[in-house]
Design goal:
InterPro entries: Chorismate_lyase_/UTRA_dom_sf (IPR028978). The chain contains 7 helices and 7 strands, in the order αβααβββααβαββα. The chain is of the alpha+beta class. α2 packs across α7.
Length: 194
């Protein structure tokens, strides 16, 4: 996937897991918040199912998407977007997706091209799975401006399957602080790691 290979060229190192030192830039007011942020990042990096479902479970509310840019060329669609809870300028993650439109029905194509819906909303979170996931870490990256945070970034690339068919290649970019927003904006009375 061209868009993923360009992003991968900027990686500084590959990571298998996270540790407390990698959250040095994550501003948390308590050790409990720092531990929760670290656990949230670890859980995300191991995720093999829908990102939308994972984030919605933690927040106990609907995740929104804002499409920044979309390009269609024959049977492929490249989509650049952010997932957020309260404000698209404070996103949870940034995603670049390359879809094979020839594998999709007309309703799915229309939803991807014409509507601001998450991938999980379009295909059904329960039918999605990540295959061949690779996670890399970069200290600084061009996504810093989009995520509106500083510190290490985690760039995760994978093939996305809908039921038994590969429908897309994705690159998701997060950092501990951007993911922690799911806890900050969670519905009152919800504790993502109670």
């Amino acid at each position: 996937m061209e868009l993923t290979s360009k992003a991968l060229s900027a990686f500084h190192s590959t990571i298998d897991d996270t540790n407390a030192d990698e959250l040095a830039y994550f501003e948390a007011s308590t050790d409990i918040q720092r531990a929760r942020g670290q656990q949230l990042l670890k859980d995300y990096l191991k995720l093999s199912t829908s990102t939308t479902a994972f984030l919605e479970e933690k927040a106990q509310q609907k995740i929104s998407v804002q499409v920044h840019k979309q390009l269609q060329a024959e049977d492929t669609l490249t989509r650049h977007s952010v997932l957020y809870l309260k404000n698209p300028n404070s996103p949870l993650l940034y995603a670049e997706c390359l879809f094979d439109l020839s594998l999709l029905c007309d309703t799915q194509k229309h939803a991807l091209i014409e509507q601001n819906l998450t991938i999980g909303d379009i295909f059904g979170c329960e039918h999605l799975r990540k295959v061949g996931s690779r996670c890399d870490r970069a200290q600084t990256h061009k996504y810093e401006r989009i995520l509106d945070v500083v510190g290490p970034y985690y760039l995760r690339s994978f093939d996305l399957y809908f039921k038994q068919h590969k429908i897309a290649q994705l690159l998701e970019v997060v950092n501990a602080h951007s993911l922690y927003r799911v806890h900050q904006y969670a519905k009152k009375g919800t504790d993502v790691y109670a």
